[in-house]
Amino acid sequence: xxxxxxxxxxxxxxxxxxxxxxxxxxxxxxxxxxxxxxxxxxxxxxxxxxxxxxxxxxxxxxxxxxxxxxxxxxxxxxxxxxxxxxxxxxxxxxxxxxxxxxxxxxxxxxxxxxxxxxxxxxxxxxxxxxxxxxxxxxxxxxxxxxxxxxxxxxxxxxxxxxxxxxxxxxxxxxxx
Length: 176
Fold this sequence. Notes:
This protein is mostly helical.
């Protein structure tokens, strides 16, 4: 194992917010470590894939565009992650990129998010973030809105709890 990978694993020793915040500070201070963090994020090695994708997303949130060069790789791997954490974190990050990505990537992202959003077997966090990505894509491509709203309206009666409440209010805003 590479020394950098070992050092990053030691840095990501637990899933606490304080650990993630420290790792984000390290990553923003040393942007060259993005390569190592992304290798871990795409490794399918739980829990380090989840922890490093969380760090990448948080760094990108603090410094918009910081991880933008990873967008094509993220979109191409969205369906391949074995663990939910990287998919959930990267979908949250992709919300910020819906206005700027190229059309081929947009199509791949749309297909993946549409499938995640309509699949009751997906964890709530993934479905929620997928719907938020779709909402961003609708702002860019308004012609997609009716298809997405219709698909989600077919599902809304089966959604219970806080996610069902959120989805109902989301659809009300989409139908305006």
